Amino acid sequence: MSTVTRRRVLRALGGAGLGMLATGGAGAAQAYRFGVTRHTRPLPGLRAPLRVAFLTDLHYGLYIGAGSVRAWVDATNRERPDAVLLGGDQLDRRMDEAPGALLDELARLRAPLGVYGVWGNHDYGSFGFYGGRQYGPPRADWPAKRAELEAAFAAAGAPILRNAGRALRDDLYVAGVDDLWNGEPDVQAALAGAGERATLLVTHNPDLLPFLPRRVGLTLCGHTHGGQVRLPWVGAVTVPSRYGQRFAMGWVEGAHGTPAYVSRGLGLSGVPFRNLCEPEVVVLDLKPAPG
After folding, report:
1. pLDDT at residue 52 is higher than 50
2. Is residue 1 one of the residues assigned to a domain?
3. Nearest Cα residue to 152 out of 47, 277, 46, 144
4. What is the pLDDT of residues 58-90, one digit of tens each?
5. What is the pLDDT of residue 25?
């Protein structure tokens, strides 16, 4: 279920020298430095400007602690977003109890229109839907654990939109769908209350993009980490997508030519390093579409 694995990375690097470069200090340093990337786009149906911050793939628990999340939250708050969206894989270890340190940091996010998130595939490992080295064995009561964590995120001011949506303004609707790999995504249910409003859809996995309806104005995704390990002239060593490099990162198009942004994410999956793939807090300045 990991984005990359050490064996696959080293095999792709194809040599001890390159392997040492990628797994040494340079790769570790790149893993914990991050930037803020800013984009300006029109959003059909929007009647007034909107600033959205998108944070995805925090992966709290395995290689990421509260200090990293604190830095991401501080950077986000400095951007003064109207809304903050979380793109899934907030969690990456077994959660017998709610992650208080993570939730305390997320509760510091400041956005007048609110903070909303979706679940990703690693979140389901944290619920106990499947087992693994950081999750322990699968647990039969994973739906109850998911419900418990949804309540904890909501109490921290970051409700999870699992096949649901919210009208944040008269001209704006935000929808979120369940994880494509381990959940039961229902796009129609998520969009049920959108009406004629401008629509933002959050899906953890970009492989849902070819199946989205035309009325979605902009989709935000994570999951790929941009490949996490990229090489000059080659690109990503591996991308966890059935479409290969097509949805690895950045601006892409889904069905009907609808724009989508696939973030490189913030945390780490599989291996504790990155190469040529800086973590990012994404800030979107969305404007009314001309005409």
Report:
1. yes
2. no
3. 144
4. 999 999 999 999 999 999 999 999 999 999 999
5. 57
Q: Is 107 part of any domain?
A: yes
The full DSSP string for 186-205 is: -HHHHTTT-TTSEEEEE-S-
Domain that holds residue 173: 6-288
- Which of 275, 250, 2 shows the shortest CA–CA distance to 120? 2
The string of DSSP letters for the chain reads --S--HHHHHHHHTSHHHHHHHHSHHHHHHHH--EEEEEEEEETT--S-EEEEEE----BTTTB-HHHHHHHHHHHHHT--SEEEE-S--B-S--SS--HHHHHHHTT---TT-EEE---HHHHHHHTSS-BTTTBS--TTHHHHHHHHHHHHHHTT--B-SSEEEEEETTEEEEE---TTTS---HHHHTTT-TTSEEEEE-S-GGGGGG--TT--EEEE-SSGGGSBEETTTEES--SSTTGGGGSSEEEE-GGG-EEEE---SS--SSS--BS---EEEEEEEEEPP-
Output the pLDDT for position 233. Answer: 86
Contact 83, 174 (CB under 8 A): yes
Q: What is the mean pLDDT of the chain?
A: 92
- Among 39, 109, 37, 48, residue whose Cα is nearest residue 80: 109
82 within a domain of the structure (yes/no): yes
Structure tokens at 44: 């059909």
- The number of distinct structural domains making up the chain is 1
Q: What is the pLDDT of residue 78?
A: 98
The CATH number for 128's domain is 3.60.21
Angle in degrees, CA 254, 260, 264, rounded to 5:
120
In a domain, 106, yes or no: yes
**pLDDT (average), residues 282-287:** 98
Q: What average pLDDT score do residues 242-252 get?
A: 96
